[in-house]
Design a protein that fits this description.
alpha+beta; Nucleotidyltransferase, domain 5; 7-stranded antiparallel sheet; 6-stranded mixed sheet; 31% strand; elongated
């Protein structure tokens, strides 16, 4: 078995790794195998990256024969004892189950019970559509961030290289195998800034300015929109623009801006206890029975859930869960709900902050 250790000189990540855990407790993992199933393939390379005295380092264990899997696993788990968190990319689906199954197959009493797992894929993948990514492969994220690789091979292409290396070891084959694994480790560190988008949705932004803006649509009609300028809880590595349900978000650096349509029209507020109301068809309004008794019977009917409302012409903003009350709709069965943009709300910076976070969550989860 060969053990190779290195230091990543002048290696900048661009993300505050301590947001995950204390940096000295983090161990990044990537493995190389000759197949997807532990029982019918070999584990030939385990690579790890970690931070020591402020520098990023790597260590790789390479099996030079099929029989050295056991030695590989002994060395890896002994090294793991120095760390508390195991960071990987989609390792919950492959790396960790593969190693666990391989230990069971080789009758080795090892497990990951003493390590807390951090799966980068699991954290970043919910942002795929928000970021406009075609998929969530590590190389796709590297490309998104402009990360360059020295390695030109895929893991599948290296299976044959490893089999050839076992039969006839060569420096070229060894370096090719190690380079691919090292670039996977470097890439994992380099895509850590992608976690900024995860942080964006899991921390609160704060609105700094709010204003209304007039604009013309393609037909030349004038509409109004609410503009919110917010400070972001993190700095984004690349600008992002996304929209859903007529609402738009643009984030760049540590600032985000929202454009949200303002609807100036008549909407309806529906009373919940419709049994206590009469509906007046001529006035198209519902009145509580305590004040509607003066209305002649032929001009009133028992209100139903769909007719128990009052109408109001005002300016409204959309909401996608019950955030602000009272709630207005266009019709009883309308799925879209709104709240009134009152003069009091215009002066409430905290309310706008709550609303901006609400809109961001909606855009991020509406695919």
């Amino acid at each position: 078995m060969k053990i190779l250790e290195g230091t990543l000189e002048d290696f900048e990540i661009g993300y505050d790794v301590t947001r995950l855990a204390p940096i000295e407790e983090l161990l990044f993992l990537d493995i190389e195998t000759t197949g997807f199933t532990a029982r019918s393939s070999y584990l030939y390379l385990i690579g790890c990256a970690y931070n020591h005295d402020g520098k990023w380092c790597t260590i790789q264990w390479l099996a030079e024969s099929y029989e050295q899997e056991v030695e590989l696993l002994h060395a890896f788990f002994a090294f793991c004892k120095n760390f508390k968190f195991l960071v990987h990319f989609n390792g919950n689906q492959f790396d960790l189950p593969y190693i666990t199954q391989k230990c069971r197959q080789l009758k080795l009493d090892y497990s990951f019970d003493g390590l807390d797992g951090i799966d980068l894929y699991k954290r970043i993948s919910p942002c795929k559509v928000f970021l406009g990514l075609s998929n969530c492969k590590q190389k796709t994220m590297e490309k998104f961030l402009g990360v360059d690789r020295d390695d030109a091979f895929t893991g599948g292409e290296l299976i044959g290289v490893y089999h050839d290396y076992v039969k006839d070891p060569s420096e070229f084959a060894r370096n090719t195998l190690l380079l691919h694994n090292e670039d996977d480790l470097k890439g994992m560190l380099k895509i850590l800034p992608m976690l900024s988008y995860f942080d964006l949705f899991n921390n609160s932004l704060k609105v700094k300015r709010a204003s209304a803006n007039n604009y013309k649509d393609l037909s030349g009609d004038i509409h109004q929109e609410l503009i919110l300028i917010a400070g972001l809880p993190i700095t984004l590595p690349k600008p992002v623009t996304a929209s859903a349900c007529g609402c738009y978000f643009h984030g760049e650096g540590d600032e985000g801006s929202f454009r949200i349509p303002i609807y100036t029209e008549e909407m309806k507020y529906f009373y919940a206890n419709y049994h206590d109301y009469y509906y007046l068809p001529e006035e198209d309004v519902a009145l509580h029975k305590s004040v509607a008794t003066f209305v002649e019977k032929e001009h009133r009917t028992q209100a139903t859930a769909a007719t128990c409302y009052t109408r109001k012409n005002s300016r409204y903003l959309p909401q996608f869960e019950l955030l602000f009350e009272p709630i207005f709709r266009r019709e009883y069965k309308s799925k879209e709900v709104f709240f009134e943009l009152t003069d009091e709300l215009k002066r409430d910076r905290a309310a706008f902050t709550e609303y901006a976070n609400h809109i961001l969550q909606m855009i991020g989860t509406t695919y």
